[in-house]
Design brief:
The structure is a single chain. The chain is 47% helix and 13% strand. The chain has 14 helices and ten strands. β5, α6 and β6 form a beta-alpha-beta unit. α11 packs across α12. The protein is elongated. The structure holds manganese (II) ion. Manganese (II) ion (MN) binds next to loops.
Length: 374
């Protein structure tokens, strides 16, 4: 099971996101060091900037580098000129896209993709062929498409759920069926329009897909793509699978992409969101102080983060005692309860949680008030 990170291509297609060549190289280096197997670095035919980025990344990283292309000889040649070792050739397969977007028939589509694959193979490239809008393509056509590209020499089929309408169950069955009928390697390229990109990606892997398209922070068009951080962490936590990716790089990667994309990571975004390793409620904090897995699917250190305790209206004495201990103090039980109630009221007044340093300051204030020595 391998990861094809497309932050620099599909992620870069997010409206308003523009990576400079240097920024792309910085992200590519970090992805490479973390252990991504393939980096889809851009669309060489689209601009001199993207051509330059793909060229330079190909020289910089040890991962496979892929350039994106339509099924046009000009696009394919542009990818080959960059020195990238791999190409993603995209062609829609759904009747809707073929009729309204390209205005071509099925035979023409097959003939164009066949030629493009042959050209790319002649140019020495590893070829992934996308069935764009594959999830809205009748199975009979999808199967024929897969057979045609395999025959032309393609290395894998990228099954694109372009508008994110698959379910995990359908995805798994579809991938299994294609592999069984055609015997081609499958990559899943899931979009998150209905919040199912990660689930569908995992389902495809269960169904036998050997590659997953992912992006850092789920960056991508509309609701984005399957998020790298959720996919690799789920593989580890749920399936016990190590795909050779260094999970402890996830947070740094996320912060870098957040910074250079200008797209803020959501508060609740799995693994990398601000709230996901922050705890306040009494029962949870008490459990976590005894074992990190009581209320976390993975320990935050494993993904490059730290547990954060804050004091809020539902916080309890365990957190106060923990803080007192860290300060080298111990208080009688009645004082701890009195302090807890004061802090709860403070949290209500502020309508927010108290950070650790604020909690410490409040404790000091309480001790001074009671005439107790620090
Ligand atoms: Mn896409």
């Amino acid at each position: 099971m391998r990861l094809d990170d497309t932050t620099l291509r599909d992620g870069h297609q997010t409206p308003g996101v523009t990576f400079t060549v240097e920024e792309k190289i910085e992200i590519a280096r970090m992805l490479d060091e973390a252990g991504v197997h393939q980096i889809e670095a851009g669309i060489p035919v689209s601009s001199p900037e993207d051509e330059e980025a793909v060229k330079r990344i190909s020289k910089e990283v040890s991962a496979s580098v892929m350039g994106w292309s339509r099924a046009h000889p000009r696009d394919v040649e542009a990818v080959a000129r960059t020195g990238a070792d791999a190409i993603a050739i995209s062609m829609p397969t759904s009747p809707l896209h073929l009729k309204y977007k390209l205005g071509i028939g099925w035979r023409e589509a097959l003939s164009r993709i066949r030629e493009a694959v042959r050209l790319a193979k002649n140019l020495g490239l590893y070829v992934s062929v996308s069935a764009e809008d594959g999830s809205r393509t009748p199975y009979k056509l999808l199967r024929q498409y897969a057979e045609v590209i395999l025959e032309a020499g393609a290395d894998r089929l990228r099954l694109a759920d372009t508008i994110g309408i698959l379910t995990p169950d359908i995805t798994k069955k579809l991938v299994r069926r294609i592999i069984r009928d055609v015997g081609i390697e499958v990559e899943i390229h899931a979009h998150n329009d209905l919040g199912l990109a990660v689930a569908n990606t995992l389902a495809a892997l269960e169904g036998g897909a050997s590659w997953a398209s992912v992006t850092v922070n789920g960056l991508g068009e509309r609701a984005g793509n399957a998020a790298l951080e959720a996919v690799v962490t789920a593989l580890k936590v749920i399936y016990g699978k190590d795909v050779g990716f260094k999970l402890d790089r996830l947070y740094r990667l996320s912060r870098l992409v957040e910074k250079v994309s200008g797209i803020p990571v959501g508060y609740f975004t799995p693994i990398v969101g601000e709230n996901v390793f922050r705890h306040s409620s009494g029962i949870h904090v008490d459990g976590l102080l005894k074992h990190p897995y009581t209320y976390q699917p993975i320990s935050p250190e494993e993904v490059g983060r730290k547990t954060e305790f804050v004091f809020d209206k539902y916080s309890g004495k365990a957190l106060i005692n923990w803080k007192l201990k860290a300060m080298g103090l111990k208080l009688p039980e009645t004082y701890v309860e009195e302090l807890r109630m004061l802090l709860v009221q403070k949290a209500y007044r502020l309508k927010r949680a108290l950070r650790e340093e604020e909690l410490e300051a409040e404790i000091k204030g309480f001790l001074a008030l009671k005439g107790l020595k620090i």
